[in-house]
Write a structure and sequence with these properties.
Layout: H1 10-19, E1 22-27, E2 35-39, E3 45-50, H2 55-75, H3 84-94, H4 108-114, H5 126-133, E4 143-144, E5 153-155, E6 161-168, E7 171-176, E8 182-185, E9 190-193
Parallel strand pairs: 1-3
Antiparallel strand pairs: 2-3, 4-9, 5-6, 5-9, 6-7, 7-8
Length: about 200
């Protein structure tokens, strides 16, 4: 686990995993998610986390998934996956990690702000997501949607082409060129500018 977590978080994470009986699987990169939690048919709790995440996003993702386990065990399966019960448990589990021995000083205020009302994904919080990407091992070779001028054409990781439209509250309306369908993009979505 030392490979995947900040050094000062390893012992506490190991204790969380042991206390809650988690079977942790570190898996190959998945585009659609950083991690997930599921209760297996045999009653074991399995959490998967992408191996490609930087140490800080890995920590947040691991605790996020453990919070699902604790919320479902405490309140039952009828709660909303990212509802109030989960948010309170996620906040409670993260508090011991939000300190300068674990996170770099430039991340601490952004993380503290995020955990006032945590989102369903750290990627949904554009400010936090961009701050965390600064610690990724590979260099970013694309652009963020918010950086592109309105009307520009961009390519998504799957090869689909879109035209950037106007911002609606937090996300950008973008039209898929081949179908004419309208999609909403997070400002921090990484894309390749075409024109």
């Amino acid at each position: 686990m030392q490979t995947y977590l900040p050094e000062r978080a390893v012992a506490s994470c190991f204790e969380l995993i042991k206390t809650h009986g988690v079977h942790l699987k570190i898996v190959n990169h998945r585009v659609t998610r950083h991690g997930d939690y599921r209760r297996l048919p045999n009653g074991l709790h399995q959490i998967t986390v992408n191996a490609s995440l930087n140490k800080y996003r890995f920590l947040i993702t691991l605790v996020h998934e453990i919070a699902h386990l604790v919320a479902f065990e405490t309140y039952g399966r009828r709660i909303k996956p990212h509802g109030l019960e989960w948010k309170r448990i996620f906040q409670h589990l993260m508090v011991p990690f939000i300190r300068p021995e674990v996170f770099p000083s430039q991340l601490l205020p952004i993380i503290a702000n995020h955990f006032k009302n945590p989102k369903a994904s750290s990627s949904t919080d554009a400010r936090l997501s961009i701050a965390l990407k600064a610690f990724d091992a590979k260099e970013r070779n694309g652009s963020y949607v918010y950086e592109l001028p309105t009307g520009s054409i961009f390519r998504l990781y799957n090869g689909k082409l879109f035209k950037k439209g106007n911002k609606k509250v937090k996300r950008y309306e973008c039209v898929e060129l081949s179908t004419g369908r309208l999609y909403l993009f997070q400002p921090n979505a990484e894309v390749e500018l075409i024109q």
